[in-house]
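Input.
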Amino acid sequence: MLPWLNRHLPVFIALGVLLMLVQVSRELWPSLAGVQPFLAAWGWYFLAAAAGLALLGLVCWVHWHDTAPDWIYRVISMDILDRLTNKQQVEEAAAQMEQEALVIDAESLAAALKAKVVGQDAVCLDLAQQVRRRMALMQRSKPVGVFLFSGPPGTGKTYLAKILAQELSRKLLHFDMTQFAAGSHSASQLFGMTKGYVGSDTYGKLTGGLRDHPAAVVLLDEIEKAHPEVMKGFLTAWNDGFITEASDGKHIPTTQAIFILTSNAATDALVQLQKDYAKDADALRMTSVSALREHGFAPEVLNRIDRLFVFAPLAGLDVARVCALEMEAMIRGYGLEVAHGGVDPEIIVQLMQRYRRMGSSASSRDVVRALEESIADSLIKAKQLGYRTIELRIENGKVLARASKAPDTDKGAASGT
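Output.
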């Protein structure tokens, strides 16, 4: 109905002007004896009104036949959607798209997270369900979620947060809290500098990021190392649904953001609790909260966390999968590709053994860094020789990179010594 009225609005305006002109004529039109004096006094007004009515009628005609030039619509304001298409249908489609963006498929999200984060299937499923429920809320005065990822290093806490941002098509704002541990200056870096001080002409890193990307995923790595002044700012963001930019006092909403905190605190205790309560998720969360409180986590911080996710230590083939993923990423970092089935299984086995010897503090990245040190020169030489796809083999106790396909060199030529 509204698009039809908008399209025919000039016609109704013209009819209104015509009726008004007729009514004025009936009130002011003199007797026949006084026509000449009346025209002398009011004739020009009637001529101007008639000309305006004729022009408006012409505009109505060209608009009706869709032949009106563009400059007319700059003079007569009209929504371009009304002029070019069915605005009502577009509005309905936009509302449907908005609704679909709010209600996500938890199973699909969980599957996507599991495919990229090894060994944390339970965490991925729980996280997907929590995000779905919280994003579907139409009214909220707090962030979509404040989630704490806790557990041993190298188990995928930071990586899962990054993958979640990718799957939700949200901007990732990543902050390493070890860089915001010294003095009140840390707070000004995140929340802005008080007006009058050097740097007060720009927003803080967090306030500026949320101003530009209000629906971002905010990743706070090693949250336990943040300065107390920084934590106060976060408490406001989580509890009140906004943070205050110090330079101008504006409130930056946090109601569309997802906050993900990671922590390596109480690693040994959490590993043991993970074993003891592996089949009781609620008991695991409650005991884990107690363990974190005993290791220095402030109660006011824990009280504002919506969900605690305890990451399990990697074991068995999960260690092998993570090491293989890290190895592939390392090789690609040198501009090379690894052939299908191109890694000697003994290399993976040795990495698994090193990982086990490191105990609860083990990190797959540490193991792969050791591997990188042993084959970096070989990879560099392979790159110089023009290799694109390589294989990794153990020869005489050393890991060597060999060419899988080398157009200008002999196949299988060793790239390491």
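Strands lie at 145-150, 172-176, 217-221, 242-244, 251-253, 258-263, 307-310, 337-343, 389-395, 398-405.
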